[in-house]
Design the sequence.
């Protein structure tokens, strides 16, 4: 058993956008913070969503409050997270099978929520976005965009650390330290150190663990009724569209197509799933079929575009306290002080909400932390202060493909990437232009010691080839840092299998050819078929 | 254009059949669309590395008898395998390729690009395997990487050799010739390095190796980036024992095997239609009467016999549609699991039922179409159904042995 020798003001549980945002907010206000994540950052819903910078238009008709929150945060994120946001704009299209009258209701609701929505001539929409279904009978322009949740989360983590936060990944909270009706800290299992037990104490513990927050609350002896809602998505091999395309109708399956980075993503489905399945989401053939069928209606070009992979995330939807049946589930933010609600001191749950409102969720949670600490004089600055990497853009001229790609990914922080020698500039991943230097930087500054960490920080292995030769190259670089050859061989096998999980539901055509190549190269040629596959879920 | 036999596919299976037939005096043509798995071969061939339960094969004769009935080896018959294996090795030797083969009935251990010991049937001379290493005078090795070359893994190889009881250190070598290559972010690949380490470039490389002060009782382990025709010069300048270890990606040993087979076929008068994709086939009374390609405008390719060796999914000999597996070139019958949900299992390295898919044939490897065997069309190599050649590590063996079996029966019938 190890006890951290520091007492914290606050311990934040959960390395998604909300947890990282809360840790940053707390750190910026001068609190002593520990951020704890059971596996890797962005492991949960943060790393498994659409990457959509909602304008809020989608909720305007059905959920005014969420719509307003969305558009306000949309405008803030464009300022503070410029490097994570792409201003693609968005369209809400009406197809011949849809009710054109809905468009009027929709535009009015948007305007009432403060969202600039403008009905335009379908011909103009076709001109703006040539990939859109040519049969559209209506189109509305909205300020949608795309956002990279991996970069966004890491920028928050990075800034939290810059402001003194301590950060532990691969530490899973297994219990709490408590005295009477007060939570005074957490007991963790270090997955990286043979399961060593680690303890840390704090005045307040914030549960920001997404859907897993349900179980963490239960463990603390309080009940937050969450409903796991699975959403499945498909990633296509290139950008079919450059503007976000939505269906102008009541929210339904597969009605948003988002361009992001080198790919585009269609989603989502929405289905209640049992709690015991949330660690192992698999996309079913039926979900693939519905996503494709509906997606092609938005952009017919999808029918002939290669599908790279399928993935699914779990939204933490929350039933309001006065409705335990869960019928009136909201997508709004839920911030609970378990002292006033349940008589449990020192414990807060922040949940509900969505990626778009992560900053506001963090602000609410941090405000509550400050109230509990009696330090309400500390004010939130996250709506104004840019995230690291998103400060004003001035940079040395970028010559190589690797440095341009790295600038795109790391923004103004890209200056920290070694690029002086030819060896640093050599490309490891040729689909996403990841250089040796970028990997070295990620190891040094972005909490990376395995391939999955590296993929989430750099997009290595996320391109067309889904991690073929780049995987061994990257692993050899990681191995040089610790000399744990066996662990890295297991890591390669695990990573290739993790990619397989997403390819399997869509493995036909070229994907089948590459699957055979991958299993041949890594299994038969390299001999990794008998390695122990390390599963982050176990 | 008329030939005795037309072979579709220029991978290991197609080239083996073509060379064997040409050696018998037949007029052969090979049509190649150009994506052979051989280019990624690291210089070792498997005949049967793992049994049906994925245990390493120690007794090959026994493991062969345990294969399912529809396996290509079972169609040949376990008893026929040893002589065909000898024939295969002799054919490669006639191509100028010498291989290490520890004994006919057992596999030897090769060393993979990541340093892992794997069972193999044949390993190209000069490449590291358990026995070539054991033959060296010393129990000490020095694995030498090239500065900035990311497809060779000296530290992984060294770790594995240490486990096997060798004293082993890792070194990095650089030469001025590689600096130019490194200036581009994507040029440090095995094939480009091989072109750089030629002539004086190779001599300079040997000189740089000497400067590393590697203990004189260590066997050097180098990446396979040196052309075999240059080895004599290299030896003269280096003057110490060395072995090559495989690199990842397009691989020099694989290319040299391919090139040697192509040269042999050309010497024998065989014709190769490179970059041609077969795009039409005419059938008459259960016989294939001719094929067309995308590059021959009005001309048909006509032969007495045809051998289909287009490879598996990787080489586009098989195609997966969202709900079925098809053979896209000649429209042949395919043995495959019906539903997509039955194609795969969650562990990529586990048994994937779809990987046993392939062209349906009768006991003599005559391909079937609409349920009937085409009397003059044979299928060979990884396009055949019944073998999971990746998991069994049987790809090279199935390719060569089925090709030889079919070539022999064509020769006998004439």
Sequence:
């Amino acid at each position: 058993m190890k006890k951290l020798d520091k007492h914290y003001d606050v311990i934040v549980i959960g390395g998604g956008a909300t947890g990282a945002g809360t840790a940053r907010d707390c750190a910026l206000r001068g609190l002593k913070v520990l951020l704890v994540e059971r596996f890797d950052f962005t492991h949960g819903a943060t790393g498994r969503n659409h990457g959509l910078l909602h304008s809020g238009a989608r909720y305007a008709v059905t959920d005014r409050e969420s719509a307003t929150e969305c558009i306000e945060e949309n405008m803030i994120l464009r300022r503070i997270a410029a490097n994570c946001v792409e201003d693609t704009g968005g369209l809400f299209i009406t197809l011949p099978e849809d009710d054109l009258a809905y468009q009027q209701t929709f535009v009015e609701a948007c305007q009432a929520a403060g969202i600039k929505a403008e009905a335009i001539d379908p011909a103009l929409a076709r001109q703006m976005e040539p990939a859109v279904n040519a049969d559209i009978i209506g189109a509305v322009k909205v300020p949608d965009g795309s956002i990279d949740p991996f970069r966004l989360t890491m920028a928050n983590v990075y800034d939290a650390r810059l402001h003194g936060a301590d950060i532990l990944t691969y530490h899973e909270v297994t219990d709490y330290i408590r005295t009477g009706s007060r939570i005074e800290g957490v007991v963790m299992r270090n997955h990286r150190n043979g399961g060593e037990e680690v303890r840390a104490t704090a005045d307040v513990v914030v549960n920001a663990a997404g859907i897993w927050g349900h179980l963490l609350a239960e463990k603390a002896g309080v009940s937050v009724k969450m409903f796991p809602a699975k959403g499945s998505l498909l990633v296509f091999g290139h950008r079919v569209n450059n503007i976000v395309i939505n269906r102008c109708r009541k929210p339904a399956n597969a009605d948003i197509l988002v361009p992001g980075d080198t790919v585009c993503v269609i989603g989502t489905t929405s289905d209640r799933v049992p709690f015991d399945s949330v660690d192992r989401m698999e996309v079913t053939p039926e979900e693939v079929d519905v996503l494709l069928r509906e997606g092609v209606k938005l952009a017919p070009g999808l029918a002939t575009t290669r599908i790279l992979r399928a993935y699914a995330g779990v939204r933490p939807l929350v039933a309001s306290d006065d409705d335990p049946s869960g019928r009136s589930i909201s997508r709004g933010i839920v911030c609970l002080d378990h002292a006033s609600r349940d008589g449990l001191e020192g414990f807060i749950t922040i949940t509900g909400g969505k990626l778009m409102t992560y900053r506001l969720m963090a602000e609410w949670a941090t405000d509550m932390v400050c109230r509990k600490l009696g330090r309400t004089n500390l004010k939130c600055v996250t709506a104004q202060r840019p995230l690291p990497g998103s400060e004003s853009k001035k940079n040395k001229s970028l010559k190589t493909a690797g440095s341009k790609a790295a600038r795109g990914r790391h923004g103004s922080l890209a200056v920290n990437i070694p690029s002086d020698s030819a060896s640093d500039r050599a490309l490891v991943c040729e689909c996403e232009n990841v250089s040796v230097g970028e990997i070295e930087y990620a190891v040094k500054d972005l909490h990376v010691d395995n391939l999955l960490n590296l993929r989430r920080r750099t997009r290595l292995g996320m391109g067309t080839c889904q991690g073929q030769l780049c995987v061994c190259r990257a692993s050899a670089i990681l191995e040089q840092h610790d000399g744990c050859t066996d662990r890295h061989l297991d890591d390669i096998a695990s990573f290739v299998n993790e990619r397989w999980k997403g390819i399997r539901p869509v493995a036909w055509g070229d994907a089948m050819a590459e699957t055979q190549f991958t299993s041949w190269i890594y299994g038969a040629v390299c001999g990794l078929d008998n390695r122990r596959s390390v599963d982050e879920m176990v | 254009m008329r030939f005795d036999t037309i072979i579709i596919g220029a991978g290991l299976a197609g080239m083996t059949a073509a060379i064997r037939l040409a050696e018998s005096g037949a007029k052969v043509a090979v049509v190649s669309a150009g994506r052979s798995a051989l280019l990624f071969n690291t210089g070792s061939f498997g005949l049967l590395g793992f049994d049906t339960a994925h245990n390493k094969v120690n007794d090959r004769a026994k493991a062969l008898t345990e294969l399912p009935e529809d396996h290509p080896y079972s169609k040949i018959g376990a008893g026929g395998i040893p002589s065909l294996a000898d024939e295969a090795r002799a054919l490669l030797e006639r191509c100028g390729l010498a291989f290490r083969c520890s004994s006919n009935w057992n596999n030897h251990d090769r060393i993979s690009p990541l340093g892992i010991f794997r069972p193999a049937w044949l390993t190209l001379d000069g490449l590291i395997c358990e026995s070539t290493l054991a033959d060296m005078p010393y129990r000490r090795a020095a694995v030498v990487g090239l500065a900035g070359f990311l497809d060779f893994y000296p530290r992984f190889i060294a770790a594995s050799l240490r486990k096997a009881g060798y004293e082993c250190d890792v070194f990095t070598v650089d030469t001025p010739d590689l600096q130019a290559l490194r200036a581009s972010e994507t040029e440090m690949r095995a094939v480009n390095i091989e072109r750089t380490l030629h002539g004086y470039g190779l001599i300079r490389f040997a000189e740089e190796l000497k400067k590393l002060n590697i203990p004189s009782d260590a066997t050097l382990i180098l990446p396979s980036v040196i052309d075999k025709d240059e080895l004599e010069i290299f030896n003269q300048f280096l003057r110490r024992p060395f072995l090559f270890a495989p690199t990842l990606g397009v691989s020099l040993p694989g290319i040299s095997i391919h090139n040697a087979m192509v040269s042999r076929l050309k010497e024998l008068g065989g014709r190769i239609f490179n970059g041609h994709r077969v795009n039409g086939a005419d059938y008459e009374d259960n016989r294939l009467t001719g094929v067309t390609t995308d590059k021959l405008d009005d001309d048909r390719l006509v032969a007495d016999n045809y051998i289909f060796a287009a490879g598996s999914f990787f080489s586009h000999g098989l195609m997966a549609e969202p709900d079925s597996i098809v053979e896209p070139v000649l429209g042949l019958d395919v043995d495959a699991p019906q539903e997509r949900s039955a194609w795969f299992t969650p562990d990529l390295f586990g048994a994937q039922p779809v990987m046993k898919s392939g062209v349906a044939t009768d006991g003599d490897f005559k391909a079937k179409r609409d349920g009937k065997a085409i009397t003059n069309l044979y299928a060979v190599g990884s396009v055949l159904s019944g073998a999971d050649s990746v998991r069994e590590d049987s790809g090279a063996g199935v390719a060569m042995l089925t090709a030889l079996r079919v070539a022999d029966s064509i020769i006998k019938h004439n």
The mean pLDDT of chain A is 92.
